[in-house]
Amino acid sequence: MKKKDPGEGYTGQITVAFKAYLELASHSSVKTICETGFNAGHSTFGWLTINPNAHVYSFDIGVHQYAKPMAEYIRKLHPERFNITWGDSTKTIPIFHRQHPEVLCDLIIIDGGHTTGICKADLLNFKKMANNDSIVILDNYPQKSWKFNQILGDVWEWAKRNGEISEIFRCHVDAKPSDFGFSVGKIINNCC
């Protein structure tokens, strides 16, 4: 018998965060949304619903039992507007970019692996896919949790110091059963 997958938390559990994510995705300038951390697809479903012109490219390791069935469900609803790539995002994003250099992300969401190496790699790899006005969201920072603040906060603050992003705002929500935060910035594209 399979052990039940306990799952993870998701952005939709925090109303103010989910509304902010949907607001950012609803702008007419947003045509391409790129994310790490599909999980059960709550955000993806919301973005595709709120913005009928958006295409979502999602990258997820696929460890949860529910991830692939949910991706198939969303793909059936939006076959022309949803792509998912399974595997280690630190490897799959660069491969995808080499194979699809025409895909440029208007909105980037980093909510995949919660380690310094993975978070930093996802940010830098997505930066190569960013257009000149790309917005980036880093999920889970700021939070009261020392673990996320230390790991994800270090990456966000490093990116600001090194001119990779310019911060627009941070949001911390003291929600039950745990707190939640996210940061929004603009990708600084040094290519041109």
Automatic annotation (TrEMBL):
It holds the Pfam family Methyltransf_24. It comes from Paralvinella palmiformis. InterPro entries: SAM-dependent_MTases_sf. This is Uncharacterized protein. Gene3D superfamilies: Vaccinia Virus protein VP39.
